[in-house]
């Protein structure tokens, strides 16, 4: 597929910047992949899963550091599973056991022999998710409100039971759900910034580092509610995106002070809250964020300043980090730090027996451990770092966590 | 020993209060082989007998003195002949081995940092081991003091009589006091015959010499009378030694700023869009006044050209770094003294002091003084005011010049050599050493360690806007040291592999706070979080009795335009024309304050100390400041 190779090339060359853009484009690409997949007569869901997984694996390999790609691939896989379950539940109306839900979860429902299709769907959904407070409530005797992502398929999925029709319907509802996902990615700023007034007070002093669109919208929203507050922006070397953010903020009339990154520790004692964006949120509540964030988080901890991370749910990553500073990092060109040519003689690999005397390290990301984060604000509300794994369990199914192994075993 | 024991707890704390203030007490110290004990004795004996009772018997202090006593035990047993330069054998091995042990595994390291910071209580054996180093230093110094004291011949004759006093019974002490009293009376008579000199006994320079001296200039015509009261006040401050340092100039005080403006040579214009939080600090438009000043160069009346030149170099940032600035200033003052002739009907001590004061205030206008410079000025003024009055101009000038040379040599050059020797003992083969900015002492430590074929790697962390690290990087690479260069934000990325952090300091304050180039606190904090030992290298002449908790109360503001422009990055022009917008301020801080718990050890020429014993050093060092 030309789209896919094109997108892979873009990822490899780091043409796509920012997890929002990446997430959105990945979702769009996967939508087209789903729509182009030929549906066999049997086991259609598996065919879709395989197709998405094959593409997803390539995408992740193209830029393993951009975790949003993997997140979206897993979200789409999860959507396919859910849609498959709900549609199969519809098609085998009256049957107790659907072919997919062979887990022990059915034991929970032995009390009610006659279940509505929606209840079966709910039960089936719970097989995908681990047991949590939320799913417990959904599992009640009433067919409670089905979850957001699958509602589109649910509402009109009751009438038909023909196999081929189900096949079409599956594809259709998956595409519908992916559209919803894209919408969700686009709307995450609004959902997050709605909560701004609850967190930003009058006369507060807020510190942020670098530039994040989420943070910007968050601050705008508070400003629109006539809160007057002051913002310190650390410039965020070596990309200096803080300058851009400062410029955007003053256009909205926010009082802004630009400080160097080195002045973070000096200034943080006068700051009420640190609000930053993230690159990705890991399952343990740790944050992959632009470089310098760990230093900021440590300084905030030292002065007991709340460290708040705002991020859309597409940045939630179901993986646990292992040595993330190295494995989930990317080293950029030294030319950000030193003028090209100024030290080129020292970095010559030929001069000193193959090993130059001088190295320049220019990492892109920092890992902030969960104990340094006071609060996560996502589009579903505020969360504690320790709660992140539950939140993640709502978005991803456990079977998809490792995409590579699955695909190699199926190949 | 048994006889003395009951006495010591009583005298203990008074050592610190009065022991080193009067010249006779210091002189007494010199003759003793056991510095601390003798100092204690001197405190009791050396003070003028008329004010005997308040000094000698401080009964309510009992419990606390028992507490502080353990400090002195190892001190006494320590060999005072051991010099600073020779790496102290008793101290080094044990400490370095402990240090070595912790480098490899982080758990042990944590232990150590806790132990070091716990020294504030002063109870750990380590602390006492550390403390002995500074105290021993006093012995050689004091002998010098004594020489000068006899030179000064200021009507205080008990220097020699107070000398042999370390082992005292009550009777003995009483006898010596009698003798002193007699000597003192005799000396007073002599002084009365001498007339004026007794009035102007060493007015101790204040912490803000500039403002003080400024006031003095107009009143300089009447040589002695107008100054006597202020001198005596200052003297009192010196005597108390616990006197709080002068409050600094606050630039949000409009009346004072107005006064300052009237006198100013450099007419700096206030920068726009000031940060509200830093109203109390001066911030000027940079670069605007430089051409104007340069054109004024040939029409100077008050300020010596060499001082003027140095001032302009400060202003344009051509000279930066604590040591470099201090040396440049002192050399300029040397030239001032060289070209000085005492005007008719004036005395050298008064007039030269005023002249130096006006030079200092010019330098302050160019750039606020660093603590090191402040201390050097204090030293110089003290030397000027304590010159004997019977010296000829030529003699006085040559003596002052040699004093300045000695200060530069002892306090800066030899001190940094001693620091290098101490610092190198903490570098092992295979170490990865991190440094931030471009501290001159740390650079020479690395150079020396490389010179003695230690195998290590250096991580140079740098930050905007000055990028001083690049210069250091260049020099280290030219020496053939393996270097890694990165920016401050990436410090937690590189900290994993680092085994030691070497930092420089602009000054170390009395509560252990390290006041240094902005960003140092960040590096120390990350190192602390990663359990990497932080060594702060700092000459003891940069210590100051001020205290500070944050970086906001006292700081220096740099050029805000340096923030909007990123060197070498033409594409970053988002903040061009920022001054037109009311809502934006750019803040370019120059210093920050590192809390003392981030510092594992302070490397000074007096040895390696925990930051909590800085006040001890300041107290010990106080004598030097007074009498060298």
UniProtKB/TrEMBL annotation, chain A:
A cellular component term, taken from the record's GO annotations: eukaryotic translation initiation factor 2B complex
UniProt-annotated location(s): Cytoplasm, Cytosol
Biased composition (Low complexity): 145-154
One protein family per Pfam: IF-2B
GO molecular function: guanyl-nucleotide exchange factor activity; translation initiation factor activity
Basic and acidic residues bias locations: 155-165
Main location: cytoplasm
UniProt entry keywords in alphabetical sequence: Cytoplasm, Initiation factor, Protein biosynthesis
Regions annotated as coiled coil: none
Region (Disordered): 137-165
Family: Belongs to the eIF-2B alpha/beta/delta subunits family.
Assembly information from the UniProt record: Component of the translation initiation factor 2B (eIF2B) complex which is a heterodecamer of two sets of five different subunits: alpha, beta, gamma, delta and epsilon. Subunits alpha, beta and delta comprise a regulatory subcomplex and subunits epsilon and gamma comprise a catalytic subcomplex. Within the complex, the hexameric regulatory complex resides at the center, with the two heterodimeric catalytic subcomplexes bound on opposite sides.
Protein name per the record: Translation initiation factor eIF2B subunit beta
UniProt source species: Rhynchospora pubera
Automatic annotation (TrEMBL), chain B:
Gene Ontology cellular-component annotations: cytosol
Gene3D superfamilies, sorted: Translation initiation factor eif-2b, domain 2 (3.40.50.10470)
Residue numbers spanned by region Disordered: 25-250
Keywords recorded for this protein, A-Z: Cytoplasm, Initiation factor, Protein biosynthesis
UniProt key word Protein biosynthesis: yes
Biased composition (Basic and acidic residues): 144-157, 164-176, 233-250
InterPro entries: IF-2B-related (IPR000649), IF_2B-like_C (IPR042529), NagB/RpiA_transferase-like (IPR037171)
Record flagged with keyword 4Fe-4S: no
UniProt-listed SUPFAM superfamilies: NagB/RpiA/CoA transferase-like (SSF100950)
Biased composition (Low complexity): 25-54, 87-96, 177-196
Cell compartments where the protein resides: Cytoplasm, Cytosol
UniProt GO molecular function: translation initiation factor activity
Superkingdom field: Eukaryota
Similarity-based family: Belongs to the eIF-2B alpha/beta/delta subunits family.
Subunit text: Component of the translation initiation factor 2B (eIF2B) complex which is a heterodecamer of two sets of five different subunits: alpha, beta, gamma, delta and epsilon. Subunits alpha, beta and delta comprise a regulatory subcomplex and subunits epsilon and gamma comprise a catalytic subcomplex. Within the complex, the hexameric regulatory complex resides at the center, with the two heterodimeric catalytic subcomplexes bound on opposite sides.
PANTHER family assigned: TRANSLATION INITIATION FACTOR EIF-2B, TRANSLATION INITIATION FACTOR EIF-2B SUBUNIT DELTA
Protein name (record): Translation initiation factor eIF2B subunit delta
Organism of provenance: Rhynchospora pubera
């Amino acid at each position: 597929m030309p789209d896919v190779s094109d997108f892979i090339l873009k990822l490899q060359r780091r043409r796509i910047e920012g997890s929002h853009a990446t997430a959105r484009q990945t979702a769009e690409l996967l939508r087209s992949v789903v729509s182009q997949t030929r549906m066999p007569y049997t086991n259609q869901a598996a065919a879709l899963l395989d197709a998405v997984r094959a593409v997803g694996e390539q995408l992740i390999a193209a830029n393993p550091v951009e975790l949003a790609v993997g997140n979206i691939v897993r979200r789409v896989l999860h959507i396919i599973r859910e849609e498959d379950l709900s549609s199969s539940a519809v098609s085998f109306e009256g049957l107790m056991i659907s072919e997919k839900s062979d887990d022990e979860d059915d034991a929970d429902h032995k009390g009610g022999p006659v279940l509505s299709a929606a209840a079966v769907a709910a039960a089936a959904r719970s097989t995908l998710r681990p047991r949590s407070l939320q799913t417990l409530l959904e599992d009640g005797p009433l067919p409670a409100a089905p979850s957001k992502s699958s509602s589109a398929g649910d509402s009109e999925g009751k009438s038909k039971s023909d196999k081929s029709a189900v096949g079409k319907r599956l594809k259709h509802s998956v595409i519908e759900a992916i559209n919803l996902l894209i919408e969700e990615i686009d709307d995450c700023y609004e959902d997050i910034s709605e909560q701004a007034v609850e967190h930003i007070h009058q006369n507060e002093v807020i510190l942020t580092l670098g530039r994040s669109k989420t943070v910007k919208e968050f601050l705008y929203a508070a400003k629109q509610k006539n809160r007057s507050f002051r913002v310190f922006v650390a410039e965020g070397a070596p990309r200096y995106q803080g300058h851009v953010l400062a410029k955007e903020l003053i256009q909205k009339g926010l009082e802004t002070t630009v400080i160097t990154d080195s002045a973070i520790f000096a200034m943080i004692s006068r700051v009420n809250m640190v609000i930053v964006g993230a690159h990705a949120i890991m399952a343990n509540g740790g944050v992959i964020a632009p470089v310098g964030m760990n230093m900021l988080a440590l300084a905030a901890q030292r002065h007991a300043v709340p460290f708040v991370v705002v991020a859309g749910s597409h940045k939630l990553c179901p993986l646990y980090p292992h040595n993330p500073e190295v494995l989930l990092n990317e080293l950029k060109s030294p030319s950000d730090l030193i003028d090209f040519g100024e030290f080129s003689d020292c970095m010559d690999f030929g001069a000193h027996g193959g090993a130059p005397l001088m190295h320049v390290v220019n990492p892109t990301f920092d890992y902030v451990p969960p104990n340094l984060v006071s609060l996560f604000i996502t589009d579903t509300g505020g969360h504690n770092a320790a709660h992140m794994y539950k939140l993640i369990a709502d978005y991803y199914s456990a079977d998809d966590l490792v995409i590579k192994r699955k695909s190699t075993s199926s190949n | 020993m048994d006889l003395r024991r009951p006495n010591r707890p009583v005298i203990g704390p008074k050592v610190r209060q009065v022991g080193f203030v009067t010249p006779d007490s210091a002189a007494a110290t010199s003759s003793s082989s056991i510095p601390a004990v003798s100092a204690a004795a001197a405190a009791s004996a050396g003070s003028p007998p008329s004010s005997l009772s308040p000094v000698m018997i401080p009964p309510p202090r009992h419990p606390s003195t028992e507490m502080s006593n353990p400090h002195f035990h190892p001190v006494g047993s320590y060999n005072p002949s051991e010099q600073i330069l020779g790496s102290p054998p008793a101290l080094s091995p044990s400490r370095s081995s402990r240090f070595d042990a912790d480098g490899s595994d982080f758990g042990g390291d944590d232990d150590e940092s806790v132990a070091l910071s716990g020294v504030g209580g002063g109870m750990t054996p380590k602390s006492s081991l550390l403390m002995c180093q500074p105290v021993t230093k006093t012995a050689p110094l004091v002998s010098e003091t004594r020489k000068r004291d006899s030179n000064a011949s200021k009507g205080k004759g008990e220097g020699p009589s107070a000398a042999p006093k370390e082992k005292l019974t009550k009777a003995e002490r009483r006898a010596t006091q009698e003798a002193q009293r007699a000597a003192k009376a005799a000396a007073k008579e002599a002084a009365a015959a001498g007339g004026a000199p007794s009035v102007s006994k060493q007015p101790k320079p204040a912490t803000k010499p500039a403002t003080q001296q400024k006031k003095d200039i107009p009143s300089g015509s009447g040589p002695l009378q107008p100054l006597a009261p202020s001198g005596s006040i200052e003297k009192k401050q010196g005597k108390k030694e616990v006197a709080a340092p002068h409050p600094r100039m606050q630039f949000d005080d409009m009346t004072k700023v107005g006064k300052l403006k009237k006198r100013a040579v450099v007419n700096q214009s206030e920068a726009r869009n000031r940060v509200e939080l830093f109203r109390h600090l001066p911030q000027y438009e940079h670069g605007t006044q430089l051409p104007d000043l340069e054109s004024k160069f040939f029409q100077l009346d008050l300020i010596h050209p060499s001082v003027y030149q140095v001032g302009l170099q400060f202003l344009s940032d051509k000279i930066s770094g604590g040591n470099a600035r201090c040396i440049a200033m002192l050399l300029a003052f040397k030239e001032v003294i060289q070209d000085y002739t005492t005007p008719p009907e004036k005395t050298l001590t008064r007039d030269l002091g005023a002249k130096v004061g006006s030079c200092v205030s010019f330098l302050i206008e160019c750039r606020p003084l660093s603590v090191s410079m402040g201390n050097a000025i204090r030293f110089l003024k003290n030397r000027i005011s304590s010159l004997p009055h019977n010296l000829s101009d030529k003699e006085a000038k040559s003596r002052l010049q040699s004093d300045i040379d000695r200060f530069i040599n002892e306090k800066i050059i030899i001190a940094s050599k001693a620091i290098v020797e101490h610092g190198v003992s903490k570098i092992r083969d295979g170490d990865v050493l991190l440094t931030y900015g471009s501290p001159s002492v740390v650079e020479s430590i690395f150079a020396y360690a490389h010179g003695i074929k230690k195998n290590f790697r250096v991580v140079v962390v740098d930050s905007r806007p000055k990028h001083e690290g690049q210069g250091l990087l260049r020099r280290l690479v030219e020496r053939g040291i393996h270097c890694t260069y990165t920016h401050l934000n990436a410090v937690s990325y590189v900290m994993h592999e680092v085994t030691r952090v070497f930092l420089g300091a602009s000054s170390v304050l009395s509560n252990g706070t390290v006041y240094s180039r902005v960003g140092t606190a960040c590096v120390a904090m990350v190192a602390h979080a990663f359990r990497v030992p932080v060594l702060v290298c700092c000459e003891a002449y940069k210590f100051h009795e001020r205290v500070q908790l944050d970086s906001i109360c006292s700081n220096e503001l740099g050029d805000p335009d340096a923030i909007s422009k990123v060197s070498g990055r033409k594409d970053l022009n988002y903040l061009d024309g920022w001054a037109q917008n009311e809502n934006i301020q750019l803040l370019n801080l120059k210093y920050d304050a590192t809390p003392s718990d981030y510092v594992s050890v302070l490397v000074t020429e007096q040895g390696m100390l925990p930051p909590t014993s800085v006040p001890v050093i300041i107290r010990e060092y106080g004598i030097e400041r007074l009498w060298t």
